[in-house]
Amino acid sequence: MRAAVLHETGQEKLEVLDDLETVGFAPGKVKIRVRATGLCHSDISAMNGVLPQPAPFVPGHEGAGEIIDVGDGVSGLAEGDRVLLCWLPACRSCPACKRGQTHLCLAGFLNAGTPNFKRPGGDVFGFAGTGTFAEEVVVDAGCAVPIPDDVPFDIAALIGCGVTTGLGAAVNTADVAVGSSVAVIGCGGVGISAIQGARLKGAAQIVAVDPVASRREAALTFGATEAVSPDELADAKQRITAGEGFDYVFEVVGKSATARVAYETTRRGGTLCVVGAGAMDDHLQFNMFELFFDEKRILPSMYGGGDVLTSYERAIALWRAGRIDLAGLITHRVQLAEVNEALDQMRTGVALRTCIEI
What we know:
Blueprint: E1 3-5, E2 15-17, E3 21-22, E4 29-38, H1 41-47, E5 57-58, E6 62-70, E7 82-85, H2 95-98, E8 117-119, E9 122-126, E10 136-140, E11 144-146, H3 153-159, H4 162-173, E12 181-185, H5 189-200, E13 205-209, H6 213-221, E14 226-228, H7 233-241, E15 246-251, H8 256-265, E16 266-274, H9 288-294, E17 297-300, H10 308-320, E18 330-335, H11 339-348, E19 353-357
Parallel strand pairs: 5-9, 12-13, 12-15, 13-14, 15-16, 16-17, 18-19
Antiparallel strand pairs: 1-2, 3-8, 4-6, 4-10, 4-19, 6-7, 7-11, 8-9
Helix pairs in contact: 4-5, 4-10
């Protein structure tokens, strides 16, 4: 079986090998033939060590395909079912799940430390317990979410992470108010999805902020009313809000420096929504007076801040109705053998989302 493998954390290139096997198929598991997977920035963050992940590992967590085998005790799934992969399935029984915060369930994270594959050289992990840069994966049945026949695999893959994360940040976590002003810092696939979410919620002004000109241009086609470079953000704040600051600012980069800019760009009493996944040693500082005096809400958003199954269904319904554009997010397509091209497209910022067809 073919898969793209990172041998050591910190390496920039993946090696596509054909000597991997899936492991762990057992009761409660399903085996999936991966058909499409998106490259998310979190994959690169795992490769460079920003996000913790044992190596060697197969990146990828934003995928879709069809079930080719079902373990004992699995109900509601059958061979041939078309599914998207949920990298953070809810156990439905832990305290977070019982509180209705299923997106905070930790059960799925336990899978990240269990090998998903093996090859002659030893065990190989799957990023986030999945590893979709492979022809096949074995996952818990809860990770396989059936999709309707009219949803293409590439669209379903995006819903599995980036779309759910960005759309949910605006709709669930921040709950953007009608007529409000919004700034989105970082306009890759997740940031563009946040822009679409803010547009759905009725924001009056949506400013897209990104250093890459092509991403700024793309943001305007997805609902941004204006697109500026980071150097132009202060001027946009002055022009649009008379210097007060935006009602909502979304940080979709995952760095303390941009989070600090986002905080300063948020009006007093406004909302800073932190969407980007950052490093454990990257600290964001505030002084106690500004926290008290400005009364800005700081809301982290994990995987869209809501029940992911509900979020998937909502995204599909909005896509069917033409209320959100998902096909337009896929700006590049490559085969698995060309996965390193996808990495370059992500690093340079020329791609919103690259679909890897497997």
